[in-house]
Specification:
Blueprint (H helix, E strand, L loop, with lengths): L1 H17 L8 H24 L4 H37 L8 H35 L2 H6 L1 H14 L14 H12 L6 E6 L6 H9 L2 H6 L2 E8 L4 H12 L4 H8 L3 H12 L4 E8 L3 H6 L11 E6 L2 H11 L5 E2 L13 E5 L5 H13 L10 H13 L4 H11 L6 H9 L1 H4 L7 H10 L3 H8 L10 E2 H11 L10 H14 L4 E5 L5 E5 L2 H14 L3 E2 L13 E4 L2 H4 L3 H4 L7 E4 L9 H6 L6 E7 L3 E2 L12 E6 L2 E3 L12 E5 L2 E4 L11 E4 L2 E3 L10 E2 L2 E2 L9 E4 L18 E6 L7 H9 L5 E6 L4 E2 L2 H5 L6 E2 L21 E5 L17 E5 L8 H4 L7 E4 L8 E4 L9 E5 L6 E4 L9 E5 L18 E3 L1 H18 L1
Parallel strand pairs: 1-4, 1-6, 2-3, 3-4, 5-6, 10-11, 11-12, 12-13, 13-15, 14-16, 15-17, 16-18, 17-19, 18-20, 19-23, 23-24, 24-25, 25-28, 28-29, 29-30, 30-32, 31-33, 32-34, 34-35
Antiparallel strand pairs: 7-9, 8-9, 21-22, 26-27
Helix pairs in contact: 1-2, 2-3, 2-4, 3-4, 7-8, 10-12, 15-16, 15-17, 16-18, 20-24, 22-23
């Protein structure tokens, strides 16, 4: 809730600074509203965590949320009226000759209405704040610390349903890995951590290892302490003291009354000459290790501290505190000798289908045989139940416990399957209740970001770029000095990942997250909490009878809402409308025009036919995110220039017509229209003009640009986009391959990825000509010269990915290339000399793709010591390539090799020296190589 108020406070503050003349006489009421909300925000940071435990606080927070939403609507409606008024004055050009007072008189009714509504809101806020004292909320908030402690202590005494060790399936391999971590000899104390989301079985795995005979014999003494969310150092030290030393009754009395420092010194003395193991289960804060490490001595060689946590940052903090570097191991990774490592992290994975099924059987039937009970029909239903649990052991245990009380019939199991979400969400000790602990532990600024994952359909792979754009549009990212919003947003995502709330799906070659996903149970939690907080609703959970209070709506299934869409489009409070299915029907746009005027986010989903966005889209002056995708053509109206707040325009790969007035939108950060054609009729009088023409140079906030080349590339405007991180130009570049264009590319030193593709269809009917109803075709002679004379990239220190398509000659000077280049893809380059001689010298190159006609020679040679960091090599459609030579010592880190559509008949023997190579395509050629080598060895013997 605190984040909702924070978002609006920042919005209001920016309006007061940037639009000082907008509010006129009511500026005082606006500032009063801002100041009152700032006070509210401070109280809400404490109140948020207490909503769960007291209905009075919950009601108070709900009232604050409602008045904040009301205030936001009032301000935004006023801005909308002012925009329409200005448009009307501009249209009636003769009014421009009238005195200023006429425009002011026209504005008076709106100012008077705003003044009255703001005064009413400020009175409501005053009453809400007064209720803190009137109903004893101040005392409740003041005692929040002790209240929280009591709640945690209660949870500590009565934990949720554990995944018992006897029920565990597939844990043996993990237990062996962790056991080796613990027993590995170290000169000093070391820290071992198990990291994973709630319900994965971290505690179970830790217990199995802790109780193993080998572990007990390896250490002189062992202690297990449960830490919990409300960490108390003295209590933990007391438990360690009781565990590691046999104390007399008198000694127990003494240590029981000791202060933290004295008790810590006592524990340090107990452990000093011993090889000890201390397990800290369920650690929620980095302070735990920071506060306790001084009491746990370096002691005897091989001592270990063993942590289980949902938050990877806690494990990483322990590493930094130890001031060493440490490997991070996944379930499948091998333990390798690492001379300096004294802190190891083990990431726990979810169960696969077979492991989940076995665990369900054990929990449902115990040690009884199942062969006579499990029919094929029951097995089918049971496997569906396991699939619903998404590999989470805790969920399987909860459902298995339920099934153990039921008759083993298909009909009863199907009932459980149909209501499985309900069974997993009942009570604070349920599966969802336990996962909710992680949500409640989030800082206020992350809560809305986490909940927003619920708008995406189940099992979605969520692109990080789109997620961040949506977070920005919704106002979830809070300013941190001059730091770019995108960097802050990435930090938010990494924190959610480290807390095991979100999982990484794919990473980019530079290690950053490319896409992510959320576990289904955490998604259910997000949807439930978001509905209670009034953040959003999804169509699968919505009550279509009461649509008017929804502020954000996510539509996953068109058939569920098709008959009721008009009800939702009459909701004047709607701020975000997101389709993950077919786009909005044209007839529904009139509802947007008449009712939904305050939209911030509009994702129109996909279209499979030509789509003309109506002129009324220009009415949505608060819009920050506009997206439509599909396979056909989309036409944007000239009214697009009224969307002065637009940050993201995403047309995907649609064949698109974009008016030149797009250059007026100075807030644009993302322009993604790879087949978007800008109209060439650009002459207009505007503050954004350069020599009478609209120009791209004023879009200085642009972070990503993906557009068809056109006349907009002329001049030096592109080179002034100094914040640009991603540039994609896919089309006919030859007319713009002049010195000015090359200098522009050289000036874009913030670039991370560069994609230049020089291509032209031999015969093309251009989109603009179709729009002008001219039936003629433009014939082109194809030419492919891309970068003869492209400037040096030596200053592009952030540029890690380059994709070039078109005829070129590779410069031999290594200084020409980006110093931190990690991925290079080439196609249609028609290089005649072996490019490996040059490329193998790039010190950081990890991925190399030589694709269609990029090289026209017949032999490639990778020299000894060449490609020191290369991990992936792909050779595709190099039709003349007959031989690949890999000398000894070349490509020592290569993991994957893909060769297709080349003239090669055999693979080089040099592949067999590559120790890390684990994937070769085509596999049949690699198998043949191994056979030939084995035959040769056999003949020699």
């Amino acid at each position: 809730m605190a984040d909702t108020v924070s978002i609006f406070v920042e919005k209001l503050s920016n309006l007061i600074l940037q639009e000082s003349s907008l509010f006129g006489e009511v500026e005082g009421e606006v500032k009063l509203l801002r100041d009152e909300l700032k006070w509210m925000r401070l109280f809400l940071k404490d109140a948020d965590s207490q909503c769960l435990h007291d209905e009075r606080i919950k009601l108070w927070v709900e009232q604050i949320r409602n008045v904040t939403h009301n205030a936001e609507d009032v301000i935004d409606e006023f801005i909308l009226h002012m925009d329409r008024r200005q448009l009307r004055l501009n249209t009636l050009k003769f009014l421009k000759c009238l005195p200023t007072c006429v425009g002011f008189i026209d504005k008076l009714p709106f100012i008077h209405d705003l003044d009255g509504r703001l005064k009413e809101i400020n009175v409501r806020i005053e009453r809400i704040m007064a209720n803190r004292s009137k109903y004893g909320l101040e005392a409740l908030l003041a005692s929040s610390s002790s209240s929280t402690t009591d709640q945690v202590v209660a949870h500590k005494e009565k934990r949720g349903p554990d995944v018992e060790e006897s029920d565990v399936v597939g844990i043996e391999d993990g237990a062996e890995v962790v056991k080796q971590m613990l027993m590995k000899g170290e000169r000093r104390r070391a820290v071992v951590s198990i990291v994973g989301m709630g319900g994965l079985g971290k505690t179970t795995l830790a217990k199995k290892v802790y109780n193993h005979d080998d572990v007990k014999q390896h250490f002189d003494c062992c202690a297990w302490v449960y830490v919990s969310q409300e960490f108390r150092a003295r209590e933990i030290l007391l438990e360690i003291a009781y565990s590691v030393k046999a104390l007399s009754d008198e000694e127990k009395k003494d240590v029981k009354v000791m202060g933290e420092d004295k008790l810590g010194s006592k524990v340090c003395g107990y452990l000093k000459e011993k090889r000890y193991l201390v397990v800290m289960d369920d650690v929620w804060s980095s302070e735990v290790w920071s506060n306790l490490r001084s009491y746990l001595p370096e002691a005897k060689e091989g001592s270990k501290v063993f942590i289980t946590t949902r938050n990877e940052e806690i494990a990483l903090h322990a590493i930094s505190q130890e001031n060493i570097a440490s490997p991070v191991l996944n379930s499948e990774d091998e333990i390798v000798e690492h001379a300096n490592s004294q802190a190891l992290i083990y990431r726990l994975r979810t169960m696969n289908e077979d492991e989940g099924w076995e665990l369900l059987l054990k929990k449902t039937f115990g040690n009884r045989g199942t062969s006579s009970v499990i029919t094929s029909e029951l097995k089918i239903v049971g496997k569906k139940i396991v699939a619903k649990c998404k590999g989470l052991p805790l969920a399987i245990v909860v459902v298995g416990g339920l099934l153990s009380t039921k008759e083993k019939t298909k009909s009863l199991w199907e009932k459980v399957l149909a209501s499985i979400e309900w069974h997993l969400s009942q009570g604070p000790e349920s599966c969802i209740g336990i996962l909710a602990l992680s949500y409640n532990d989030l800082p206020y600024y992350l809560k809305s970001c986490f909940l927003y994952f619920g708008i995406f359909p189940e099992d979605s792979e969520i692109k990080t770029s789109k997620l961040i754009q949506l977070w920005l549009a919704e106002g979830f990212i809070q300013r941190r000095g001059k730091e770019p919003f995108e960097d802050i947003a990435e930090d938010y995502l990494y924190e959610l990942i480290h807390r095991s709330m979100i999982q990484v799906a794919k990473r980019k070659v530079d290690g950053r997250v490319k896409s992510c996903h959320i576990h289904d149970l955490l998604r259910d939690l997000a949807i439930s909490e978001a509905r209670d907080a009034g953040l959003f609703q999804v169509d699968e959970m919505i009550d279509v009878r009461f649509p008017t209070s929804i502020r954000r709506l996510s539509i996953h299934r068109h058939d569920l809402i098709q008959g009721n869409i008009s009800q939702h489009l009459r909701n004047s409070h709607l701020r975000s409308l997101i389709f993950f299915t077919e786009t909005l029907e044209r007839k529904s746009w009139r509802f947007l025009q008449e009712h939904v005027k305050l939209l911030t986010v509009l994702d129109l989903g996909s279209t499979n036919e030509e789509f003309i966005i109506p002129e009324v889209v220009g009415e949505l002056v608060h819009l920050k995110f506009l997206c439509i995708r599909g396979d056909e053509r989309v036409i944007l109206p000239f009214s697009i220039d009224r969307l002065v707040n637009l940050q993201s325009l995403d047309l995907g790969s649609l064949d698109a017509y974009i008016p030149h007035t797009i250059w007026k939108l100075q807030e644009l950060r993302y322009l993604n229209c790879c087949c978007g054609e800008i109209s060439s009729d650009q002459f207009i009088k505007s503050s954004n003009c350069v020599d009478g023409y609209l120009s791209i140079e004023k879009l200085t906030n642009l972070q990503a640009l993906d557009l068809l080349p056109g006349s907009w590339l002329e001049g030096d405007g592109l080179g002034k986009l100094t914040q640009l991180k991603k540039l994609t130009l896919y089309g006919w570049l030859n007319p713009y391959m002049k010195k000015g264009f090359l200098e522009c590319i050289a000036n874009l030193t913030a670039l991370r990825t560069l994609h230049l593709k020089n291509s032209r269809v031999f015969e093309k009917e251009t989109l603009l000509n179709r729009l002008r109803s001219k039936v003629w075709k433009e014939k082109v002679v194809e030419e492919r010269r891309l970068i003869p004379g492209l400037m040096s990239f030596s200053h592009h220190t952030n540029l890690y990915k380059v994709i070039l398509s078109g005829k070129l000659e590779l410069p031999e000077e290594i200084e020409f290339y980006p110093p931190n280049l990690l991925k290079l893809s080439l196609e249609y380059c028609e290089i005649q000399k072996d490019p490996m001689f040059i490329l193998e010298k790039l010190p950081n190159l990890r991925v190399l793709r030589l694709l269609l006609r990029s090289y026209v020679g017949d032999k490639l040679t990778c020299s000894s010591s060449g490609f020191p960091q290369l991990q992936s090599l792909k050779l595709d459609c190099l039709f003349s390539l007959e031989e690949l030579i890999i000398e000894e010592g070349a490509m020592p880190r290569l993991k994957t090799l893909q060769i297709s559509s080349c003239a090669m008949r055999k693979l080089p023997r040099g592949l067999l020296q590559l120790k890390h190579l684990d994937k070769v395509q085509p596999k049949s050629m690699f198998d043949k190589l191994i056979e030939q080598v084995e035959e040769t060895v056999g003949e020699e013997e």
